[in-house]
């Protein structure tokens, strides 16, 4: 009976998922300690297993890369959402403070986990070996975890802006501005990481928030600013 076979197989689903989580955690730990340029041999050694076992769970190196990106995205999105919500809930806050808080949350990940950020954004694992140039498809049909993450963060910032924009074109304008801000922050963040000059995270956050909000207030005088 097929039902019996399916039931037996499903009993292992939780175990497989737990093992995947363990392997991703081991890979992230190895990236932090050995740097973003490590290969599958180093990841397997850190996990106390073999590359064959890792491929069994993730398909290939691009599958592992996608799983690591998803783990990082979960953490980053949680932090961005928490930071922006806290800023909006603060009586002294407002949309400008929320944008600044979201920017700071993004930069905080880079400051705390620079090697993990390099691994996710610059994809060194995917440039190694025969899997280079391939991406593991995800359940939603998308193929690039980094672009997916940037899209979601852009949507988060757009939601913050859109809640304080009036006019018929408010929603579409907020989406454009939200994604433009993410591109602005990512470009500056990459340069900050690649060419450190002593600029602190707080200072970089202030510069980027000033630039982003100056542009928003100049292009959209109908933005309802709370914090002056």
From TrEMBL:
<dbReference type="Pfam" id="PF19344">
    <property type="entry name" value="TetR_C_32"/>
</dbReference>
<dbReference type="GO" id="GO:0000976">
    <property type="term" value="F:transcription cis-regulatory region binding"/>
</dbReference>
<dbReference type="InterPro" id="IPR045823">
    <property type="entry name" value="TetR_C_32"/>
</dbReference>
<dbReference type="InterPro" id="IPR009057">
    <property type="entry name" value="Homeodomain-like_sf"/>
</dbReference>
<keyword id="KW-0238">DNA-binding</keyword>
<dbReference type="GO" id="GO:0003700">
    <property type="term" value="F:DNA-binding transcription factor activity"/>
</dbReference>
<feature type="domain" description="HTH tetR-type">
    <location>
        <begin position="17"/>
        <end position="76"/>
    </location>
</feature>
<feature type="DNA-binding region" description="H-T-H motif">
    <location>
        <begin position="39"/>
        <end position="58"/>
    </location>
</feature>
<dbReference type="InterPro" id="IPR050109">
    <property type="entry name" value="HTH-type_TetR-like_transc_reg"/>
</dbReference>
<dbReference type="Pfam" id="PF00440">
    <property type="entry name" value="TetR_N"/>
</dbReference>
<dbReference type="InterPro" id="IPR001647">
    <property type="entry name" value="HTH_TetR"/>
</dbReference>
<protein>
    <submittedName>
        <fullName>Transcriptional regulator BetI</fullName>
    </submittedName>
</protein>
<dbReference type="InterPro" id="IPR036271">
    <property type="entry name" value="Tet_transcr_reg_TetR-rel_C_sf"/>
</dbReference>
